[in-house]
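Deliverable D2.4 — example input (structure tokens):
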């Protein structure tokens, strides 16, 4: 199948699989904001981030290597999967031995057992789902995404809305959902057939670990970049010029990031398909043209998606977040527009990271992520001191934007492709103008926003046409299959 069509088809499959699950996650967002107080919302976010921080350390990020080498025809899938399982099993033993140290985290008191169970189940599911993708079983991967979110939704309703177990109910829900998902994949994809101690290959393990070790730092650094905002907002109370800090303010920041996560959702759907294409097309002669076309179209759609969220930021925030129980959440929309642009930059960084994966230059991913983390921490200290939550928002954007500038230069040394820098900076500038209008809301802001959005559509129409043309061909092909 043509590589453009293959990418479009995989994107469509992941989108279909993600659509239902994301709708349920939106309902969960409202369930959390209605049933969990701002202070506990921040505790929930910190525990999530802590789990995400710990998982790559104790799994050695081996799931990243599974998708890279599982798709590579030069490697035997049994050797890849067996090596990954044994590495992860070793990591889980280390996790259990180190778990008493989690009590040193003030916000983890009373949740250590839940945190360990959360990490084990999530690691199990992550490894299983990545190997399913590596076997090109995209439809099963998408189906599992729907079923996992449905089970998460049901468990959350039971434990949080009915039994009122709060944060513990959330942690238990994630554990049970991920455990069920992992078991489902092992049974339906018959993963046990690929786990065989006799197929263990030390050389393959060494290659995979060498690839994945830098990814540990990369994942941790990105988590620190997102994690530090909440920590600084929560613990700088009484030490800043701004009063917009503390646990309640951290809860507001957490909810302000819900709408930008919609943009991240679409980016992740595409990245799942794109990452597979980047790996399989790594040795293609026309890969530079392939990257140029896909990246141009991807940028155009992402800019337009960000613009749409910014224009309708206030009503959309009202839909996603429940203000009735916690009136403080009503000001979330003040921080959301710049967070949308920050997530947009993060999405572009994610796209560029696929080049590091395809070329096996994961150390580059690590040091570029380090730059983002350092910028984020330094600016958090300075800007939160002055502006509170808004300072954290600006720091987040600045760190992702800095990383983008570094990566767009570095990645094109590995795989060269044309980039329209002028189009990028003009689109970004327009988004900031729209953000200012969305927050200040002068009397004439609606017609101006509409004109700016229309201009962006016209300005990016060439890249959009390419995607629509490819999508039309793929949909026609799928329709013909259905009719047969």
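Example output (designed residues):
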């Amino acid at each position: 199948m043509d590589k453009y069509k293959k990418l479009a088809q995989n994107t469509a499959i992941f989108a279909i699989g993600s659509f239902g699950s994301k709708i349920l996650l939106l309902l969960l967002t409202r369930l959390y904001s209605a049933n969990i107080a701002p202070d506990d919302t921040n505790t929930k976010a910190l525990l999530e981030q802590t789990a995400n921080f710990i998982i790559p350390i104790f799994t050695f990020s081996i799931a990243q290597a599974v998708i890279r080498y599982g798709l590579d025809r030069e490697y035997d899938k049994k050797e890849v999967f067996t090596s990954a399982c044994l590495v992860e099993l070793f990591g889980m033993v280390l996790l259990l031995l180190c778990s008493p140290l989690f009590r040193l985290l003030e916000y983890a008191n009373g949740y250590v057992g839940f945190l360990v169970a959360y990490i084990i189940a999530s690691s199990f599911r992550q490894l299983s789902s990545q190997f399913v993708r590596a076997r090109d079983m995209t439809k099963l991967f998408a189906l599992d995404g729907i079923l996992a979110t449905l089970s998460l939704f049901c468990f959350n309703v039971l434990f949080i809305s009915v039994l009122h177990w709060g944060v513990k109910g959330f942690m238990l829900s994630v554990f049970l959902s991920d455990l069920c998902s992992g078991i489902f994949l092992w049974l339906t994809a018959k993963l046990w057939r690929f786990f065989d101690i006799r197929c263990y290959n030390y050389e393959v393990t060494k290659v995979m670990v060498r690839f994945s070790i830098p990814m540990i730092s990369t994942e941790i650094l990105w988590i620190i970049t997102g994690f530090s905002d909440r920590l600084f907002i929560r613990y700088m109370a009484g030490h800043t010029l701004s009063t917009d800090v503390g646990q309640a303010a951290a809860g507001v920041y957490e909810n302000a990031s819900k709408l930008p996560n919609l943009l991240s959702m679409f980016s992740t759907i595409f990245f799942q398909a794109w990452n597979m294409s980047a790996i399989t097309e790594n040795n293609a002669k026309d890969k530079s043209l392939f990257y140029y076309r896909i990246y141009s179209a991807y940028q155009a759609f992402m800019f337009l998606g960000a613009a749409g969220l910014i224009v309708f930021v206030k009503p959309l925030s009202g839909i996603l977040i429940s203000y009735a129980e916690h009136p403080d959440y009503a000001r979330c929309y003040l921080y959301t527009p710049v967070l949308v642009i920050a997530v947009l930059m993060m999405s572009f960084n994610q796209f560029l990271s696929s080049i590091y994966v395809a070329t096996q230059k994961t150390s580059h991913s690590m040091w570029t992520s380090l730059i983002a983390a350092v910028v984020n921490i330094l600016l958090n200290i300075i800007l939160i001191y002055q502006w509170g939550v808004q300072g954290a928002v600006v720091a987040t954007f600045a760190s992702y934007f800095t990383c983008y500038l570094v990566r767009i230069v570095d990645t094109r040394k590995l795989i060269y492709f044309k980039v329209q820098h002028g189009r990028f900076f003009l689109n970004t500038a327009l988004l900031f103008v729209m953000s200012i209008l969305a927050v200040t809301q002068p009397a004439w802001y609606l017609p101006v926003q509409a004109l700016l959005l229309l201009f962006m559509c016209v300005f990016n129409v060439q890249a959009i046409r390419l995607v629509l043309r490819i999508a039309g061909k793929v949909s026609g092909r799928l329709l013909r299959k259905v009719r047969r």
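The chain has a mean pLDDT of 85.
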